[in-house]
Amino acid sequence: MLLTTILLWSLNLSVTKYILDNGLEPLSYATARYALAGAIFVALTLFAQRTLRIERRHVPVLLLTAVLLWLNQVCFVLALDATSASTIGLLIGTIPIFAALFGVALGHERLGRRFWAAAAISSVGVALVAVGAGGDVSGGYWGGILLGLVTAATWAAYSVAVTPLMRTYSPSHVSAIVISGAWVLIALVGLPVTTSQDWAVGWEIWTLLVLATVGPLVLTNILWFRVLHRIGPARATLAANLQPFVAAVLAVVLLSEPLGLAQIAGGVLIAVGIVVARRRTTPAQAA
Questions:
Q1: Residue 257: enclosing H or E segment and its boundaries?
Q2: Greatest C-alpha distance within the chain
Q3: For residues 189 and 119, which has the higher predicted lDDT (pLDDT)?
Q4: Vertex 147 angle, CA 142 and 149, to 5°
Q5: Is there a contact between 239 and 108 (Cβ–Cβ < 8 Å)?
Q6: C-alpha dihedral over 98, 99, 104, 110, to 10 degrees?
Q7: Could you give the CA distance from residue 93 to residue 263 in angstroms, rounded to a whole number?
């Protein structure tokens, strides 16, 4: 289940990049994908639990997670539109570093020298990935690199923010509310694009869009939380660090994207930073 999850997450970058290059505009794609995902999760939750009820005290957190997921998805599709899937795949490897920073900001843990060493190593890795991507040095290209980093940061923030909700609600229940809320925001922002979008893109693009929704969004949601229950978060997240490299390799194989030595070295340094950061902090003492 864990390997299937990692493969689907990694494959999503290549599939999305192909769709954006061959038919749909970034915000049109995100709008259609999240509309379908929201409908699926709402149907699953109503079928299994018969309710979408949320306690009033959890509404602010749900609104925050919806905004974070909206920002994450907008940056994700715009980043893929601006640069390669392999580059974004490697940059996503910085998620654990950002998650650590958010954990510190919330007082869950403390920064130590090991963390700063990890952050420095990963920063060098990010620089190598960005420079090694080569080609165009225009504002659009560097904008894609920046959006890739914001994608990693917002996903880390979303993961930290949504975790407390999982103690009260099922993953499908939370996803039904949060994904639907994020879809509303995506649809509003993308309205000018979606209204002018030519939706006659052929059955191949529509098939890939459905697969990119059912697999990386819906199925992985179910598999990931079952994996966490069976083998624990420590081993699961350690194996999940393979995703950036698997995503980069798939982009090279499926999309014929170039992957230079600098990018490979950058990806390795990001991974080294993650390993170092795993011993980066000490728990904050209770007041």
A1: none
A2: 60
A3: 189
A4: 100
A5: no
A6: -100
A7: 12
Which residues lie closer than 8 Å to 93 by C-beta, 6 or more apart?
122, 125, 152, 241, 243, 244, 245, 267, 270, 271, 274
Tens of pLDDT, residue by residue over 86-116, are 888 878 877 777 777 777 777 666 666 776 7
- Cα–Cα distance between 12 and 8 in angstroms, integer? 6
Encode 194-226 in three state secondary structure: HHHCCCCCCHHHHHHHHHHHHHHHHHHHHHHHH
Closest Cα partner for 93 from 136, 156, 140? 156
Q: Please choose, from the candidates 161, 145, 137, 142, the residue with its C-alpha nearest in 3D space to the C-alpha of residue 92.
A: 145
Which of 246, 106, 178 lies closest to 98, judged by CA? 106
Parallel, antiparallel or unpaired: strands 109-111 and 281-283: antiparallel
219, amino acid identity: L
**Cα(261)–Cα(273) distance, integer angstroms:** 18
State how far the Cα of 58 lies from the Cα of 62, in Å rounded to an integer.
6
Give the contacts of 49 (CB within 8 A, at least 6 positions apart).
170, 172, 173
Window from 25-29, 169-173, 248-252 with minimum mean pLDDT: 248-252
Query: For residue 242, which of 52, 31, 5, 74 has the smallest C-alpha distance?
Result: 5
Contact criterion met (CB below 8 Å) for 97 and 155: no
Q: Compute and round to an integer the Cα radius of gyration of the chain.
A: 19
